[in-house]
Here is the input.
Amino acid sequence: MLLNASGCLDALTAPEVARSLDAFVTKTITPEPRGGNAPVRIAETKSGMLNSIGLANPGREGFLVETLPQLRELGVPIWVSVGGFSADDYAETCAVLKDVTIELNLSCPNVDDAAGTSAEIVAACREATTLPLFAKLSPSVWDLAEQAREVEAAGADGLSLVNTLRGLALDERTLRPQLAAGTGGYSGPALKPVALAAVYACSRAVDLPIVGMGGVRTGLDALELIAAGASAVALGTILFSDPASVARIRTELATEAAARGFGHHLDAHRAAHSSLQMSGSRSGNSRQEKAANGAKSTA
Amino acid sequence: MRRQRLRVAGAEPVGPYTLLRLGRSDLDAGVPGQFFMLEAPGRVLPRPMSVCLATPAELGFLIDPVGPGTRALCQLNPGETLHVLGPLGNGFDLDVARPVLVGGGIGVAPLPYLSERLGGPPALLGFRSEWHAEAAALVPNAEVCVEPVYVTDLLPGGSVDVLACGPEPMLDALRALVPDAQLAWEAPMACGYGACYGCVVEVDGELKRLCVEGPVLQGALRGDLAAQSN
Here is the structure.
């Protein structure tokens, strides 16, 4: 199944693109409205792009009253990306959501205020809701697998891997930052090996379905993430350059899977791990089924 | 909004700029002031370009090679293909009684198509050098000035409908003189269709996406938040 990465599509200005997805993921919603960062907010680099949007969003009330009812009319399952500046911020938003999957944005690189540890936030949200909770983690940590185990123990139902990396682009002439905010989140093709490594490591560490994302441009990119351990794939930067890419990648994914002898692309799930000695009771097959079922039940 | 692969019909220099002509297929050219996202060969993101010329067979885009993406576009050869997405955004309101077109530098880009649709109204074009001013040949009925003379020095008195595109200082100066002028603004864009929130500008005190609200804005206050926060 294909989703958009949070913040990479406005379903209300491009409903036909949203409808081509298996689920639509909203921009991150914070308790209060945010205008976001001052421009300049984006900069292209040789192998990707930087953004410093800064969690621009209508706030919890505005989202619930204005945005969400319109999103429901699209007829696409909705994932709400939830953000905040304390565990309570996250939990209070989770508590008022219904009939959606929740993705906890635990890793926005464009907001400085620390919100607590990922596990604390997940635990608070777990108390607040029975809805499926996906934890979106940053790859910028020394031991991502350990963080994955912590959020699993805290009650997460799945992982979204990965968010952008913090990056900096300088103006060639002035040698000053191109973005008004200085640094931004780095995304695009350069992120793919980082995403693959994160999915691969977390897939071995936890028994949770994983939405893989980072630099996906083709069906083969998506298949690689599935082979690394993802059971769903999200598209980010590619949507900016090609809003029609969802249908193309879906077709390519089936073709690339078939070319490798897989009847369904999810049959390639964890194929990258198959030559490894699996330890303990975690056999590849049982996790594959669980991951696939988990993804289905949430979207 | 359609994404389509078009074939390069030609790419000719116009002063320092390049007029990139693409076989139009059956693509809607849109309203003057609207833009297309042009795939920039070898780059991650496409580039927003307003329609400069629209004939039954071709769409023309006037491009200033200021960075790697625009340079790659200017170096395209006839027969090569590229994806374009559009038409996007809001163009000029053509229901005007006494139109005067005003352009500065590469801001002349949307004016040839606009002039054609308005029946060749008077145009005032400003450039930084005689070389840049070669682009004035694309706009009929144009009065041309070169720095240190500015287009605002040439603006006629009385009630006119100003439709303008150019650098921010020029648009700010025009807005001060003609508050209801239709002004086509520019901002870096990743997507051009409202997805990235990268192209926000301050409109009436709020940050809004230029690709969705503009790029042509009329009578709106467009402040520079970056400047204010420094």
Notes: Chain A is about 35% helix and 15% strand.
